[in-house]
Amino acid sequence: MAASTDGKLNISELDFAKIKENLTGFLTSQSDFVGYNFKGSSFDVLLDIMAYNTHYNSYYANMIANEMFLDSASLRNSVVARAKHLGYRPRSAQGSKAEVTLQITPTGNPSSISIPKNTQFQGSVDGVTYVWCTANSHSVNINANGIYTVAGVDLLQGIPSTFRYTANTGDPDQKYILPNANTDISTIEVSVQTSNTDTETVVYTEATDITTTNSASTIYFIDEVEDGKYEVQFGDGILGKKLANGNIVILSSLICDADITNGAKSFSVVNDVGGYSNVKITTTSDAAGGAAAADIDEIKFNAPKNFDAQNRCVTIHDYVALVKRDYGDAQAVVAWGGEDADPPIYGKVYVAIKPTSGTVLSESSKKYVRDEILAKRNIVGITPEIVDPDYMYLKIASTVKYDSGRTTNSASVLKSTVTTAITDFGDTNLKNFDKSFRYSKLIQAIDEAEVSVKSNQTSLQLKRLLYPLLGSSGAYTLPFSNQVFHPSNTFWGAVTSGKFGYVDSAGTTWDECRLQDNDGVVEVYRTSGEERIIVNNNVGKMTYLTGKMELTSFHPVSIGSESTGNTTPMEVFVTPSSSDVNPLREQIILIESNDVDITMLDDAGTGTYVEGTIATTDGTTLATGENL
Fold first, then answer.
1. pLDDT by residue (tens digit) across 234-279?
2. Who is most buried in 156, 174, 217, 378, counting CB within 10 A?
3. What is the rounded CA–CA span in Å between residue 626 and residue 338?
4. For residue 628, what pLDDT is reported?
């Protein structure tokens, strides 16, 4: 904006240089300073000071205005304060959780063994040792051969800490602060001791429903304050019991190490368990669920949605919002009603959670989400069920043409580069609920993988993993959830699989059998040379329109080297009708490096490369791939 030369004020500029220019223009327009050289005099220093002060104040006023709104706030304290108005408390750091079974061999033969809460164990992740504590106390009085077994022991990661405050009702500024930023407030215990001389102690509970609260309710409130710390507040004598002068407030919690402790698999005793050190520890569920405190972006995203949920589970969006708020290891969440399930199951809500660490939640983590987060806010008559994400894989086969004259990389290096480009494409564009695969985007990513790549011809299949119970006949459903290609001019269709062992009607076991479809009927076959020989002509059906495969009386006897159990997956492939693939609800599409098959074809030449067969002017033809 031009400087003012007519005595009018320019006040819309906030840049330092423009402010100074406007001040100079305003003074120049005054009769007292006509012809005055501002830049060549000491007046220039005064203009710098005035411009700096104006710029400083305008920035300060702008920041104040920004920090008053959730969308524009940039300081964590401001974001937290705005979210508080919506009834949203940011998630604290959370320690990981594990489940173990303890086998204690004591000296002597005690009638029972008591394991107090916060009994410490240790485990390591990447060579660093961390502390876990028992979440509850346990008592066992049944032993077998002198061994006392305690199953289902939950371990919470963190170091126990306790802070004590003496209430001074005459101090209006007294605060009860948990001073550690990594306090896991899901583990907090608040109790109030009457006084130094009276040790009677009352345990307080967090206020969750003020409609049932009165002046005698022993409740507390907790909110995040400055620097990521949390403050505990008590009632005022109307909404909750008021503290008396001299009461001793005791705040106990775990100080955790957040998400870096996820994945711990084995644990050992720190000192003893119930007074005994001869303890065998068997891990039932690896450590998972640890998470860092909610960051600014997460708070901004979740606070409005939490306000919509009003701390209750009514719609499926409420389930998603509450799980994201209270379970820190949830990278992605999706929910749907049982009426939308296949087949419909009324009276249930299904929640699928993709954890930040790993691919599925442990059973103990599912129980925690179901019982501690959802059950307390659920509508009566509706049962929440926590299920695993349904992973569906893409098998990519691509012939990549490149010009060796435009690169110093070898074919093997280029192959690795293209493979990485494909897996990176999957990591960026897939790996989440509601993320569809777009074929054209993948083609573009391959072409842009390296400067020498000229073109690519890429095909894909959908892959599912089936874990059949070997040696037993069973029924299995594989939902590919996309229309499957149905060729009409071939004997077999779009279904194939990895190899497995199967017994034919004559009782002969064949080790290298596969699946195929024949006009919607799924068959088991083996090969003899180029010939396909049917082993079982009907083990299920393939519904091409919906992409649903149903196996009935499927009785494999081996997969790979495994002939018992169901720990080795059997790979089943279909060719989709469309090159674009859409997941359904809880499905997540993945591209893994071992499902990527790249063939590099050097297309360097002096002429023009020909795709297909064309005719020349003299009537002769050039074969596919010949240079002109």
1. 999 999 999 999 999 999 999 999 989 998 999 999 989 988 989 9
2. 156
3. 59
4. 35
Residue 162 forms beta bridges with which residues?
252
Q: Which two tokens stand for residue 77?
A: 């304290």
Q: Which helix (H) or strand (E) holds 348?
A: strand 348-355
ω into residue 343 within 30 of 0, thus cis? yes
3-state secondary structure of 274: coil
**pTM attached to this predicted model:** 0.66
Is the separation of the CB atoms in 155 and 190 below 8 Å?
no
**What six digits make up the tokens of 88?**
């949203």
**Structural contact between residues 56 and 50, judged by C-beta atoms closer than 8 angstroms:** no
Measured in residues, the chain has a length of 628
CA distance 155 to 35: 81
Place of tokens 């993709």: 354
Compute the C-alpha angle 6/7/11, nearest 5°: 110
The secondary structure of 470-512 as a DSSP string is TTS-EEEEEE--SPBP--SSSSS-SEEE--EEEE-TTS-EEEE
Strands 509-518 vs 383-387: parallel, antiparallel or unpaired: unpaired
For 258, what's the count of Cα atoms within 13 Å in the CB-facing half-sphere? 12
Pairing of strands 219-224, 201-206: parallel
Identify which of 551, 496, 557 has the alpha carbon closest to the alpha carbon of residue 525.
Answer: 496
